[in-house]
Amino acid sequence: VAVVNDNHLIRKNLALAYNIMAHLGLDDHTYTHLSSRAAEGDAFFIYPFGLRYDEVTTDSLMKVKFDGTVLEGNEYQYNKTGYVIHGAIYEARKDLNHVFHTHTVNGVAVSSMKQGLMPISQWALHLYDGVAYHDYDSLALDDSQGNRLISDLGNKFAMLMRNHGALTAGRTIHEALFYAYHLEKACIAQCLALSSGAELILPPKEVCEKTVKDLLGFEKDLGLRDWNAWVRLVKPSSLFNSKAA
Ligand SMILES: [Zn+2]
Questions:
Q1: Residue 245 confidence (pLDDT)
Q2: What are phi and psi of 70, to 5 degrees?
Q3: Among 30, 66, 182, 203, whose Cα sits 20 to 30 Å from the Cα of 47?
Q4: Is this model's pTM higher than 0.85 or not?
């Protein structure tokens, strides 16, 4: 997995990720946020609170230090919640370079279910034994929230935040998007399956364990093929020139 080390490209890919997430309906108006670690390692890019995902461009992104200091860009309103969550994760998880926070209706519904994400679809099997859980405690306005968040996340790449939403992360931006997409599809399928009232069939544990290995080992750079296809969709002119990795 090749990690991008150029702030211009990191900004460009993050702006594209906002646009793609908007296209997929994975935004929540001006709420929630996506971020990418800056090349220097000790800061991250994030959009200013107040923009819609479809409005984000390379130039509108802000650069913020882990402690919440804004280094570059202008914001409409200081959004400490966003910075606490993202800064704490980047500080604790050196392997992660991209963090996506979402509030989707189906994701929130599954986050409120005691059993969490059930292995009842192939989408969900991408995340078999891969979802962490974080109990709800109002807005993440103080640092202790950040500490609890990272201890709950552990070494995973996805987390359901109870009664609130989800968080997916990646070493690359396409990996974070890959998990966000599959988690959302899995949550939709689970909500539909449970609301049908039908008796559900779950694959045996051994099958689930083999499947998640097969699915995640299927591509050598997880999510890159999908990413390029989405970039062509939201920015047809960039076609295959866009270097995501
Ligand atoms: Zn949130």
A1: 41
A2: -85, 120
A3: 182
A4: yes
